[in-house]
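In the present case, backbone shapes were mapped to integers, as reproduced here:
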Amino acid sequence: MPRVLAAALWKRLAQGQIDPCYFFFGEETYLIQEYSTTLMKRILGTAPRDFNCDVFSVDSDTLENALSIARTLPMMATHRVVVLHGLQQLRKADWPPLERYLEHPSTSTALICSSSVSDAKKFPSFLWQHTVTVECNRFEGPKLHDWVTHTVAQRGYRITPEALQVLLYEQEPDLQTIKQEIEKLCTYAGDTLEITLDESRRSRIPRDCNPSSRCLMLSERAR
């Protein structure tokens, strides 16, 4: 089975191709969660999720139960979705049940697996052979800039190049942290619909801070 980019995965789905197993792996847990949720929504569509979607934080105790559900036919839907987060928690002795399932998977179930470990050598070869795999590592450079610009635009705002540089310089590189800061910046930008250096600076001043008080002076020094 192929290792693909996320864009190729969505294209496969748009063409009506639902694969029996997907594997998202890498240190960017925000992407893993986003891709898993998006994949689940696109596969299930309007089907009732209470009967056709099960999510597990997998370990040796839950794996067999999860795979048993994966073998169950969906209800009032064409497919069932079973999500197994945290494959990095499995020990070597825990893998055989998953290997047996992937050799003969249910054609009416989409099994979505994930791991926050980015080292491909940590996983058995059968996983790569039987899954459509998407690597979810940290964004850098232009790819990260494009993601921030797109995320800001989804909120109906734009961000100036100067504010973008400051945002990425001051934040941790994980997307969840950056998105939280974007939400805060959009709140401060308000009706202007543009995030500038001024909004970036103002967002770091506590909301209960009196402009004439000492906390504002401290905030100014922090710049």
Observations:
- Residues 205-223 have pLDDT under 50 and may be disordered.
- DSSP finds eleven helices and seven strands in the chain.
